[in-house]
What we know:
This protein is of the alpha+beta class. It has one helix and ten strands; from the N terminus they run αββββββββββ. The chain starts with a helix and ends with a strand.
Amino acid sequence: MMSRFFQTSLLCGLMFLFATTTLCAQKKEATLRVEPTEVQLGEIEIRKIDDTTGRVKIAVWNDGTAPLILQNVSGCCGTDIKDYTRAPILPGKEGEIQVYFRVEPKLHTISRTVTILSNDPKNKEVLVPIKGTVVKNKELGRVAF
């Protein structure tokens, strides 16, 4: 018959082994989060369009437990990705994507998309829409075309 001490020690050892195995079995994964999830440029008056109008920065966060790698960042419709963080983004840290596109000085709707491919297993592809409207005048909250 086992002694009470031996039974307790065996039970504690098995519990420790189970806890250690469970912790080691948890996967380390990168988790991509972008801010903003959608870029809203709002209403832009034609007379206020300049070289900085189409410059946008998107913050990229790693909320996971493994380094986040941005494998590719691209834009559609003449959207140029000037630069993005190419080094692995450590857990809890932030990277950046710099986007540029030309805003035509005419009345139109702006609709662009930035596509981010990463090693986030749950979110391998993230789309960030960029939206806005070029208007002639804004008067007291009214849009005049």
